[in-house]
Amino acid sequence: MKRGNLSREIVLNQALSLASEKGLEKLTYNGLARSLSVQPQSLYRYVENIADVKSGVVAEYVQRLTTSLYKELVPYSGKDALRRFAIYFVSSTQNSMPFADMISGLTTYGHTPQLVAEITKLRELSTTIIRSITTDESQIKANEQLFLNFIIGNLALVTVGAPNAVRDKDVFEQNIDRVLSLIN
């Protein structure tokens, strides 16, 4: 690719693709430049360094997830929306950048303004739905934590080697319903 055809968006999209294939930790500046057919120095016009690339990758990943969730949830509301949220979140996370890499990226780069903004949008989506079905205003935060902890916990189980934790779709969906029954 010619340097004139590059942009920050193209660089981060390619980096996300590489991170999804090989993992975030194996993403290197030189490897990214090679995959874009440019010299590593050319990337400095669009990204500051590998930390900027990796934080941008995680932010792009979260942004895509949030956008996809919004589109997926349009026809749903209330507990049906939360149920779809959980199913879609888990299934889409399993089909892209490894979950462990996403968590590592959030831990390492979660303070960056771009990533903070994207995480905030994702949380606002779940909070909006939870707020619509929570009768006791003081329980909104607790309900959100319960819901998100359930999702993240299931993904963590899969990551550490309990493959049936999420792959058994019927049990997973029954557990979603059990968690949702606690939200009122």
From TrEMBL:
Q: Where in this chain does the record put each HTH tetR-type domain?
A: 5-65
Keyword DNA-binding in annotation: yes
Write one Gene Ontology MF term.
DNA binding
Entry keyword NADP: no
* Superkingdom, taxonomy of origin: Bacteria
Q: Which UniProt keywords apply?
A: DNA-binding
DNA-binding region, as residue ranges, is located at 28-47
InterPro entries annotated for this entry?
Homeodomain-like_sf, HTH_TetR
Supply the name of the protein. Answer: HTH tetR-type domain-containing protein
- Lineage, highest ranks first: Bacteria, Bacillati, Bacillota, Bacilli, Lactobacillales
